[in-house]
């Protein structure tokens, strides 16, 4: 019974921590889960595009995607949207490091 309660406590703690991690990119702040979803959108876009260099630098196509979460729309209005999206994708690729707050961009652990 004690092991079960410990497991539940550990699972609850993990869930709270993973939801609390925030990623800061410039003036914008996003949840780590949202950044992971953004990376998934970017990965799908890369697979469909024949030239990965163009896909990774094309923020306009990502911003035009109706599946892009609303919280990323302000990034689309910035002049450095492509750079911001690429940085966020890098954080998402290394999210295990972010979840233990080893990235300076990640807070809330």
Describe the structure.
- The chain has helices at 2-20, 32-48, 52-57, 59-64, 73-77, 81-93, 95-99; strands at 22-25, 28-31, 106-107.
- Strand 1 (22-25) and strand 2 (28-31) form a beta hairpin.
- The chain has one domain: Proguanylin (Alpha-Beta Complex), CATH 3.90.1450.10.
- It is mostly helical and 109 residues long.
- The model has no long low-confidence stretch (mean pLDDT 74).
- Helix 2 packs across helix 6 (81-93).
- It is 65% helix and 9% strand.
- The protein has seven helices and three strands; from the N terminus they run αββααααααβ.
- Strands 2-1-3 form a three-stranded antiparallel β-sheet.
Provide a brief overview of the structure.
By secondary structure, this protein is mainly α.
Helix content: 55-70%
The chain-level mean pLDDT equals 74
- The number of helical runs is 7
The major β-sheet equals:
3 strands, antiparallel
Indicate how many domains the architecture comprises: 1
Strand content: 5-15%
Oligomer: single chain
Given as residue ranges, the uncertain stretches (5+ residues, pLDDT < 50) are none
Structural class: mainly alpha
Task: Give the SSE string.
Answer: HEEHHHHHHE
CATH topology annotation: Proguanylin
Number of strands: 3
Look at the structure and give the CATH class.
Alpha Beta
Strand line-up of the largest beta sheet: 2-1-3
Full CATH superfamily name: Guanylin
């Amino acid at each position: 019974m004690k092991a079960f309660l410990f497991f539940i406590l550990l699972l609850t703690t993990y869930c709270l921590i993973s939801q609390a991690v925030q990623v800061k990119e410039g003036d914008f702040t996003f949840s780590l889960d949202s950044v992971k979803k953004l990376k998934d959108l970017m990965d799908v876009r890369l697979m469909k595009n024949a030239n990965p260099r163009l896909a990774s630098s094309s923020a306009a196509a990502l911003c035009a995607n109706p599946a892009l979460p609303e919280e990323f729309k302000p990034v689309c209005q910035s002049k450095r949207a492509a750079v911001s999206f690429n940085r966020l994708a890098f954080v998402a690729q290394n999210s295990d490091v972010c979840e233990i707050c080893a990235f300076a961009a990640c807070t809330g652990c």
